[in-house]
Amino acid sequence: MFVNETHGITLNLKNLPMQMDKRIFGDTYNCIGFTSIPIWSAMFVIAIIAIITLWSILMIMIFVSWIDSMIQRCIIIRELDLVIKSNKGTVITLLGKRLEQKDEHEIHKIKRPKERMEMDEKLLKVLEKFVCKFD
Questions:
Q1: How many CB atoms lie within 10 A of CB 81?
Q2: Which long-range contacts (CB under 8 A, 24 or more apart) does 82-89 make?
Q3: What's 35's DSSP letter?
Q4: CA atoms within 13 A of residue 107's CA, in its CB half-sphere
Q5: Is residue 101 a contact partner of residue 90, using CB atoms and an 8 Å limit?
Q6: Given this model, what pLDDT does residue 99 score?
Q7: Cβ–Cβ under 8 Å, residues 99 and 132
Q8: pTM as predicted
Q9: According to the model, what pLDDT value does residue 116 have?
Q10: Shortest CA distance to 84 belongs to which of 12, 135, 35, 133?
Q11: Is the pLDDT of residue 48 over 90?
Q12: pLDDT at 41
C-alpha cells in the first residue's frame, strides 16, 4: 500500500510486487522469492547425484589402471614360435601357456625357416626388455 499524505492519495494494489520506498529498483530476488524450496531441493539432489557419479567414475578409473598395471607385467606372444627363459624369474608366455624358468638364459627356436632366424634374433633383443615377471 502506498500513501501520499500531502495530497491525501492512497494506492492499494493486491498481489503486485513493487518497491516504492527506493528510487532505484533492486534485483528481482529482493522483491520475489526467486529460489523457492522446490528449486533448492532440486539443486541439492542434483549435487548429490553429481558427487556420486564423479565418485563412481573415479573408482572405475582406479580399477582400470589397477588391471592395466597387472596386465603390463606380462607380454603374450601368440604369433611367434619363440621362447625366452631367464634365470631371473622372468618368463614370456607363448601361445597362452606359461613357461617354466631354467638356470641359464636360453633361447629356443621352434620350427622356423632359416630366412626368419635373423629376424628372430633382432626381435629377441627387443623382447628381452618386456619379459613377464611373476611374483
A1: 14
A2: 82/107, 82/108, 82/109, 82/110, 82/120, 82/123, 82/124, 82/127, 83/107, 83/108, 83/110, 84/124, 84/127, 84/128, 84/131, 86/128, 86/131, 89/133, 89/134
A3: S
A4: 12
A5: yes
A6: 44
A7: no
A8: 0.31
A9: 56
A10: 133
A11: yes
A12: 92
Q: Which long-range contacts (CB under 8 A, 24 or more apart) does 50-53 make?
A: none
Q: Which of 89, 83, 93, 114 is nearest to 101 (CA)?
A: 89
CA–CA separation, 107 and 104 (whole Å): 10
pLDDT at 36: 76
* pLDDT mean across residues, the chain: 63
Q: Tell me the CA distances in angstroms from 106 to 32, 65, 114, 134, one per residue in order.
A: 84, 33, 19, 18
pLDDT of residue 38: 83
Q: Where are the alpha helices (DSSP H) in the chain?
A: 28-31, 37-71, 114-127
pLDDT higher than 70, residue 4 = yes
How far, in Å, CA of 44 to CA of 29, rounded?
A: 19
pLDDT at 129: 60
